[in-house]
Amino acid sequence: MARPIPPVTLRGRLIAGLLVLLACACAAVGVVSVLALNRSLLSGLDHQLTTSRGRFASSLEHSQGDTRGQSAGTFGARLVAGVVTQCGVVAPQRDTDDTSSTGPTLTLSAADTAALAALPADGRGRTVRLSWLGDYRLMAVPGLDGDTLVTGLPLVEAEATVHRLEAVEAAVFAVALVLTGVAGALWVGVSLRPLRRVAATARGVTELPLADGEVELPRGVPYTDPRTEVGQVGASFNRMLDHVGDALARRHASEQRLRRFAADASHELRTPLAAIRGHSELARRHPGPVPPEVRHALERVQAESVRMGHLVDDLLLLARLDAGRPLRREEVDLTRLALDAAGDARVAGPEHRWRLELPEEPVTISGDADRLHQVLTNLLDNARTHTPGGTTVMVRVGPPAGGGPWVELSVADDGPGIPEELRGEIFERFVRADLGRSRASGGTGLGLAIVRAVAGAHGGSAEVESRPGRTVFRILLPASHAREALPSGSPT
Ligand SMILES: Nc1ncnc2c1ncn2[C@@H]1O[C@H](COP(=O)(O)OP(=O)(O)OP(=O)(O)O)[C@@H](O)[C@H]1O
Ligand SMILES: [Mg+2]
Fold this sequence. Notes:
Layout (H helix, E strand, L loop, with lengths): L9 H43 L2 H5 L15 E6 L2 E7 L20 H8 L8 E5 L3 E9 L5 E7 L1 H36 L1 H14 L22 H56 L7 H31 L7 E4 H15 L4 E5 L6 E4 L1 H17 L6 E7 L7 E8 L21 H6 L6 H11 L3 E7 L2 E9 L14
Parallel strand pairs: 7-9
Antiparallel strand pairs: 1-2, 1-5, 3-4, 4-5, 6-8, 9-10, 10-12, 11-12
Helix pairs in contact: 1-4, 5-6, 6-7, 7-11, 8-9, 9-11
């Protein structure tokens, strides 16, 4: 199973890249400097060996060896026909004696002897590891009497010098890497700050409610220098913001025009509608004999003009609420309102069971009594017309379950519920479950749109929760501090 790769930020990538490059540079400098030092130390030793010309080795033939002028640890060996005949090492100088001497008799292992025999007598230095003495720089030169003289100098000091350089370089490079990491993180952080600001501004835009109304977009970012990458991003972002702002302003203007049109049209329709209603009523009441078909036609004209009148009133109300026309603000007793609306509903729908749950104390808020009455009537009409007879409807006024400075007005029923595909958009205009049935029963699909718009105009909200067997509409309205002592409504 593939494991998800953790996201890497630009900042992290830049710092990691910087550190990897610096580490590579340090490694290259380290390797080159160590190699160069090694080479220079070896060539120094080779030079020393060349100048000694096998003097120590040839002196071993006759005595313990002439150690004068030889540094401690100098190795000498004489080979005749590939066999080591004499060998020795200059012992360290003692304080009491100012001359050096060869150390205890040197025993060479078979491997050492073989390595010495294999040295070509060409006067060039070679590094050889001797069993008891460690690493040596050896040089073989041909002797006077057909022998081979090998002289060697210990590498221990040269190796220690190289190790010291390695240790110093490792410490310096480690500190340089740490300092570069910290300084790089700060520097990259500072350099990326403009990008973070662009991102924050973009995030701010995404959090704005762009769907409707007038939107004030944030001002663009101040980084617009086209010579820098951040400036290019900033300039493009600002241009995009301008375009979005333009489009939103145009959309708002067209919305405004549409609303004005809806308001004007519904307003203009009211007068001719009233005339149609009045005249059809007049004709219907005509005292003379009227043929039954004409009477029926007049009744239909009357009924439809009444229905159209309601529709026009609803459209006008919505248009006014859309335009932000302020509502009346008066003390409204919600308990009284609920009592009245439930009483009307009981008369209109005697087959339903109507229940009321009201608090002991009357609940008053500041709002528009007629519009709030319309909200309750719409909800109760729905509970009556969209559920079968025998359904229980509960009207409740009280504090909401979530608490807070709100009053909750709820209408719940145990009917069949709102069809699932409509639940998300049930508060939209002209949304109805069964178009055919609704039209037959006179519904237009504006009832719940008005409920939400009126609740919103009061600074509140309207929500629905529905499943088969339980549908609850909850209207939250801002609670008013003033409370009037009215006789409390009793549950019916
Ligand atoms: N209590 C309810 N139970 C089941 N369905 C409901 C209920 N309330 C509303 N609905 C559904 O929501 C739809 C929209 O309701 P809304 O009140 O907006 O319009 P309407 O009742 O059809 O028409 P009107 O404009 O006359 O009120 C209804 O057509 C109905 O399908
Ligand atoms: Mg309705």
